[in-house]
Amino acid sequence: MLIGVISDTHIPDRASEIPEAVFDAFRDVELILHAGDLTSPDILTELETLAPVECVQGNMDRHYGIETPRSRLFEIESFRVGLIHGEVYPRGDTQQLRYLGLELGADVLISGHTHQPFIRELEDMVLLNPGSPTVPRLTDPSVMVLRIDGEKLDAEIIRTGAPVCSSLNFRR
């Protein structure tokens, strides 16, 4: 199964639209998992033109009153895939994310919140974060494509644009 993974779109509060590169990256996916911070439910409708979408609530979604589950667990082939926003501090702390994944019973835990992509293979779990296609933090805008084939899992971070650093924006 080919799965598109996205997080932290922040539309319309921080960005105006999903980059076209996301639609190109997700062209052949069968499912899209969104790890929260949509900030508008319209994003789900837009992504559903490509494939069914499942999402969880991010910290900013609560601010905007978007009611979605805080966590989800999916059985995909031979894997239990957990989906959370990943509100741990410090952001992206793998030990805390691992504990959240263990609580869910996940083999694979997808999170967002950091706006930075990563793939971490732990002894008993794989941690994935697609980054953000619209408001990355000190990295390239990105999404992820996850291929699950039986007992084989392959994750690829896909760059969806040029790096953005608002601290270098001198036009104020």
TrEMBL record:
Coiled-coil region list: none
InterPro entries membership: Calcineurin-like_PHP_lpxH, Metallo-depent_PP-like, MPP_YfcE, PdiEstase_YfcE_CS, Phosphodiesterase_MJ0936/Vps29
Tagged with keyword Hydrolase: yes
CDD domains the record matches: MPP_YfcE
Domain Calcineurin-like phosphoesterase: 1-149
Domain of life, per lineage: Archaea
The keyword Hydrolase appears for this protein: yes
Requisite cofactors: a divalent metal cation
Swiss-Prot/TrEMBL keywords: Hydrolase, Metal-binding
The enzyme's E.C. designation: 3.1.4.-
MF term (GO), any: hydrolase activity
Family named by the database record: Belongs to the metallophosphoesterase superfamily. YfcE family.
The protein's name in its UniProt record: Phosphoesterase
